[in-house]
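Reading a protein record of the kind used here takes only a little practice. The record below shows the convention in full:
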Amino acid sequence: MMTGKCVGLSLAALLWVTAASAATVTVSDDVAAPCGRAGDAYVVARGARWISTNVSVETVRTVQKRLLGDFLWARCAGKEYLVRDARPIEQAEALFAPIRKLEPERSALTRRQSKLEATQADLDREQEEIERSLDRADDDSRSHDDALTRRRLESRRRQIDERLRTLEKEERELDAIERSIDQREEEIEAKAERELWQLIDRTVANGLARPAR
């Protein structure tokens, strides 16, 4: 599934929108099999949001400027259908609302991951500089000051190593949180798509879905 702030439709569906009248028609030659099989696709566009599957972003962007308004488009068993009725479009979008409820949790995780990565990068750079300083110390004379400097650098290197080990543990914890969010999102999405295909089947059966080609 893809989501975004643009809308998309096949060129055939766009041409239908231009030519069709406003009257509702009943589809008499509907798909024999239920929607949702391999190769079937949909686009739900409402306001600035869109949700889709099996439709490329390029296809979405190609026609978005020439298509206005909310719609539910589906390709089932090689046939294309378009729904303009507000109620099924609202119902379709609502099916995916639980996914949006995960967004604050995912955003918080992303912030923690970014902060962790920045800290790791800073420590890695400092560690590299310490290694270079120790190499230079080996090449210099073994004066008392050089020995003190070396001990200080080695102490700091041990501190960094310990800090990096702590960050690695935190990274594993964040990875586990991310896997949990991903799993919940996949479960919600699978359920929403099953119900969406059933909704599309009903709109085809009751004539709200008009043939797009």
User: Anything to note?
Assistant: The chain has two domains: 2-99+192-211, 103-190. The first helix runs from residue 11 to 19. The CA atoms of residues 127 and 157 lie 6 Å apart.
